[in-house]
Amino acid sequence: MAKIRQARPPVQTDREASNAEQRAFQTAADKPGAAAPSGLAHPEIRAEDDAEGMLRPRSLNEFLGQRALKENLGIFIKAARERKEALDHLFLIGPPGLGKTTLAQVVAGELGVDFVHTIAPAMEKAKDLVGILTSVTDKTVFFIDEIHRLKPAIEEMLYIAMEDYEIDWIIGQGPGARTMRLPIKPFTLIGATTKAGNVASPLISRFGITCHFSFYEQADVEDIVRRSAGIFKVKIDDDAAARLAKSSRGTPRVVNRLLRRMRDFAQAWHEQTITKKVVEEGLKRLEIDELGLERHDRDILRMIIERYKGGPVGAETLAISIGESIETLEDYYEPFLIQAGLIQRTPRGRMVTALAYEHLKLSRDRAGPEEPRLF
Ligand SMILES: Nc1ncnc2c1ncn2[C@@H]1O[C@H](COP(=O)(O)OP(=O)(O)O)[C@@H](O)[C@H]1O
Ligand SMILES: [Mg+2]
Questions:
Q1: Is residue 99 domain-shared with residue 71, that is, in the same domain?
Q2: How many domains, the chain?
């Protein structure tokens, strides 16, 4: 049986720890070791992450939606298996919660190889990478999450490793130092990022396969929620699943989180089944509207409208105004607000659309006219 393990060292600096805290809400399952069945679980993993691990699809068949991406990948995996070669390096791009980590594990499972998981900022020094690459087994899937945050020295070492399955190791110091090339086992690097724009092009060019994740379609999210309910052994009506899917931002992680809350509500209200009524009442209590916006999303829109007259406002200014880091704004909130047609990115900054005014039931006058009117 192939094994899953978390690459050492997961040691975090203080800055990392505070970043991790900031992101804890949106990338709960992303913590190194979140899915590791071994004793290597990360101390920061919370109970809900375990629930997420439980829901994680284990095979391509269980991995719902993203049809085109899955079909192609299935072909590449089969071909690599038949040739008894390591799969080409794989680059996964997409907003949080869409299944990048899950897919990386599924690929390892389908290939029948070991899975090693790390997060780019956890590798501080070149020797951390050397330690991992020299100890992996043949054809291992080595998953680096948040690959846009790799340190340059590590990135350069990775280039040679990816291309030639070799690493440069510097021995000694000063004038006596020399470089030794060490062969390593063939492996598949899977890099995941929410920010493809921040990944250096020499690194991108070394990935043979690129997968872009898009938000899931309604029908796929419904399938996911029904599958998860099955695993939790809770009953959910079809119209309740549909209603829940509608408010889930096309994101599996979100629908699973909402399902857990609905399970709580159903239990509290002594309902045997999660009905549409439970979902509607539950979502109201969570202040999640029919577009899937939470209070904070609406606050962002309202802020742009009320303080910045609908925009444009620079991302940094906006992030400060709403008390979020720019990463959280850009990675978590914005992609969906853009996809839902509520805000637009322009060269001068973010602007709300007419739909945002409509959704919040605000008139444009409330924000003040853009040009001073004379009459
Ligand atoms: N295609 C899918 N089918 C079913 N469940 C999924 C799928 N993709 C993701 N999930 C669920 O959503 C959760 C979040 O996925 P994850 O892979 O951690 O997202 P990402 O790494 O992109 O942030 C997983 O725990 C899994 O249960
Ligand atoms: Mg992830």
A1: yes
A2: 3
- Same domain for 31 and 50, yes or no, is yes
- Residues lining ligand 1, CB < 6 A? 27, 29-30, 52, 55-57, 63-66, 96-102, 224, 252-253, 256
DSSP code of 262? H
Q: What pLDDT shows up at residue 58?
A: 94
User: Are 38 and 3 within 8 A, CB to CB?
Assistant: yes
Q: Which residues contact 325 (CB under 8 A, 6 or more apart)?
A: 22, 319
Quick check: is 101 catalytic?
yes
Quote the domain boundaries for residue 336: 295-367
Q: What is the pLDDT of residues 295-331, one digit of tens each?
A: 999 999 999 999 999 999 999 999 999 999 998 999 8
Whether residue 372 lies inside any domain: the answer is: no
CB-count exposure of residue 82 (10 Å: 0-12, 13-18, 19+): exposed
Segments in the chain below pLDDT 70: 1-3, 5-51, 366-375
pLDDT value, residue 50: 57
